[in-house]
Amino acid sequence: MRISELSRRSGAPVATIKYYLRERLLPPGETTAANQAEYGEHHLRRLRLIRALVGVRGLSVSAAKEVLSGVSEHATDMHQMLGLVLGAVPAGKGEAEPAPEARAEVDELLAAAGWKVTEDAPAKRVIAENLSTLRSLGVEVDWHTLLPYARLAHETAVLDLDQLRHTDDPLEQAERALVLTVLLEPVLMALRRLAQEDESARRHGV
Amino acid sequence: MRISELSRRSGAPVATIKYYLRERLLPPGETTAANQAEYGEHHLRRLRLIRALVGVRGLSVSAAKEVLSGVSEHATDMHQMLGLVLGAVPAGKGEAEPAPEARAEVDELLAAAGWKVTEDAPAKRVIAENLSTLRSLGVEVDWHTLLPYARLAHETAVLDLDQLRHTDDPLEQAERALVLTVLLEPVLMALRRLAQEDESARRHGV
Q: Is A79 at the interface with chain B, CB within 8 A?
């Protein structure tokens, strides 16, 4: 397809597509004439993914580029690729440096849950940071409080991985993992809020 | 306590505290002499909460002010207050306008889950938006896909509400609800990522 059709089907303006091409976020099309190129379905798929990363989740163009190049590189190793996706997308924007005790507690939590994860996974830091902040606000939480949440998180992860059906194209599977990780986050948090409202109404007899 | 001690105990610079006082985010202290005021424990508690809302979650000062004034107003009605907290804190930053079918699907999901929530809850829009985006990326999801996630979200909400132990001070309980809603979000998403990594390692025999 021509760039105009790519624009129409993706909803991205032609100028934006040209910008992504210049930044090598999108691979070049096949040149068919001077100043004219053909694009395929994989361009469309990648373009939609870029739009989701940049537009919906607010990643910078350079962060999106890094995520995408890593996804291509590790496309044959699903676990490796998933690790990359988990690490590359920032999970939170905490400011405070977590206290060493909070870090130690996260290790206790992981041991109690029986999880084996990368030693320096960014998500571990996020948990430690927020544990510290909650305590500074006078909320008594420790890893025991988080353990039942961890059990539910595991059930959620099982659902997540079940969504990654096998396709012939490892890149497609990799992109699917990335999209699910990123786009289901706000959905899960929204579901929690609605469930809280419902549960609160039940408990307070509304 | 003096403003200097308030600064030391909260970790907020004196200039920041003065800014919050000017913006009426923080109620004034009790004047003890010209240019001198005494602050109490409730100032400290409120200051920490402001820091968490502004610093950790990136709310604007005016958004934080709105949340806090609403919390004070509805402090005696726990359900009302929780509804306010759920509505006031933005749950996502989607750009696309959700398709009408996506909105209808969210209603089907809520009916299937048996939840009763406010008709125009912002969280409903967040789910519809992300359903639309996932579909535009070629991921086949519908409300049936989300139902098992909703069941887990309900179990999470039960844990959340169990954390809100009764205290004599309704304002304290209100603030606790707000803090838990806001600060547990990144923790739950981080737990999901670690659980995904662990589950992926199990499935791919790493």
A: yes
